[in-house]
Write a structure and sequence with these properties.
single chain, 145 residues, mainly beta, SH3 type barrels, 5-stranded antiparallel sheet, 5 strands, Transporter
Length: 145
């Protein structure tokens, strides 16, 4: 023993990564015709298919308003722990969470990892969102609204 493990060589072949060419052939990008055809632009269907519209990452900020006032009923007969990935469909939505320790609260997930979730938990006593993260194994059940 006593030998440190070999270290990989530092740096690479001294080559910077290739950069995409800046600009183009001096041509501005083609512009769509203004107001042609009398057709309004197609709008995504509202509330269809149960799929929320994809949202850009919001820099992880809390929602701008309080969660719903109601407290959902715990769905009985649920399995003990959940798979974190199953919460992906609730990203950026008000989600009611029941923990294994018996606590429950409104949660606004902004990150769903391999086995953990993070976002904002509603602090009813302070009437504000507070940053919160937990291991998925702590979550007994959840429901997004």
């Amino acid at each position: 023993g006593g030998q440190p493990p070999p270290r990989p060589p530092q740096g690479g072949g001294g080559q910077p990564p290739p950069r995409p060419p800046q600009g183009g052939g001096g041509q501005p990008p083609p512009r769509p015709p203004q107001g042609g055809g009398g057709q309004p632009p197609p709008r995504p269907p509202q509330g269809g298919g149960g799929q929320p519209p994809p949202r850009p990452p919001q820099g992880g900020g809390p929602p701008h308003k309080a969660p719903p006032l109601f407290i959902p009923q715990f769905p009985g007969g649920m399995i003990k722990a959940i798979d974190a990935g199953s919460m992906k469909g609730c990203l950026y939505q008000n989600t009611y969470v029941w923990l294994i320790n018996g606590r429950s609260f409104w949660f606004y997930p902004t990150y769903v990892g391999y086995n953990s979730v993070a976002g904002y938990r509603w602090r009813r006593s302070q009437q504000r969102w507070a940053y919160y993260g937990t291991d998925a194994s702590e979550i007994r059940s959840f429901q997004c609204y």
